[in-house]
Design goal:
Layout (H helix, E strand, L loop, with lengths): L2 H15 L12 H11 L4 H14 L3 H6 L2 H8 L6 H16 L8 H5 L6 H12 L8 H11 L8 H11 L5 H17 L21 H14 L2 E2 H4 L8 H13 L3 E4 L2 E4 L2
Antiparallel strand pairs: 1-3, 2-3
Length: 269
């Protein structure tokens, strides 16, 4: 596969079936794009859309989010999962408000210095908000590149994927190119192409039922309703999971997502 033909295939599929209507593709606001990128981590697009809209309605800009109580942020995040993301997003907003006067940094390196913003998210914001010629990899991008350039390899390294991306990136079209590339990878997956397990960097998501993630989510859902006594909380998933729930209470407290006030636990403020 030549680099030129690869670009032609991706662009053609994007023109034909691209997800042009996704709400975060209608904006160049780095705040809104950061919110979408954080929400989309390990979460399907269809699930994210209603949360994204509700979140931005409640917290339309950096200052609104930076002034919000953590409990308010966690409540509107409820059901999306991986709630630590909500806490880190609020912390990033606070840094932006306090140290940058509400303005977003212009480079991926500066963005990466924000709380909870890793290399992928920083480069994605740089591409989608600023149309910068940066290179980054996520699951759909990896599928698209592997499908066309590494079909015969049992295991690929992201360094190899990055090398292809550097060669195929159409300069000055980063924003549209990555949208097209992600959509093409998603299309391949819907078509039955499953290649991420062949990446050295791939980690399969653990089963949700019975997991610590489920226990943490159940606790936060209960506490979003009202403060609860510890004796009540540890029983919410039944006797067989009491120890797991105790551990979940401890980890959520340590991470600052919940706090003990008197004899009751509540969402952190």
């Amino acid at each position: 596969m030549s680099y030129t033909n690869f670009r032609k295939i991706v662009w053609a599929q994007y023109k034909k079936q691209g997800r042009h209507g996704l709400p975060w593709r209608r904006t160049r606001d780095p705040y809104k794009i950061l919110v979408s990128e954080v929400m989309l981590q390990q979460t399907q697009v269809e699930r994210v859309i209603p949360y994204y809209k509700a979140f931005l309605k409640k917290f339309p800009n950096v200052r609104a989010l930076s002034h919000a109580k953590l409990s308010e942020v966690l409540k509107i995040w409820q059901g999306l999962g991986y709630n630590r993301r909500a806490k880190m997003l609020r912390e990033a907003a606070k840094v932006l408000a306090q140290k940058h006067n509400g303005r977003f940094p212009k480079t991926a390196e500066e963005l990466e210095a924000l709380p909870g913003v890793g290399p992928y998210t920083a480069h994605a914001v740089a591409a989608f908000a600023y149309n910068q010629n940066v290179v980054f990899v996520e699951t759909n991008i990896r599928t698209a590149v592997t499908h066309h350039f590494f079909t015969s390899k049992e295991k690929t390294d992201d360094a190899e994927v990055f090398a292809v991306l550097h060669k195929t990136l159409p300069k000055g079209k980063s924003r549209e190119w990555y949208a097209a590339l992600m959509d093409y990878g998603a299309y391949l997956k819907r078509s039955g192409v499953r290649l991420n397990a062949r990446s050295k960097h791939y980690a399969k998501q653990s089963v949700f039922e019975g997991s610590m993630r489920q226990a943490r989510g159940a606790l936060l859902k209960e506490l979003a309703k009202s403060p609860c006594e510890r004796t009540f909380l540890i029983k919410i998933l039944g006797p067989s999971r009491r120890e797991q729930v105790k551990n979940a209470v401890a980890s959520l407290t340590q991470e600052g997502l919940i706090q003990l006030r008197g004899t009751r636990f509540r969402l952190a403020r």
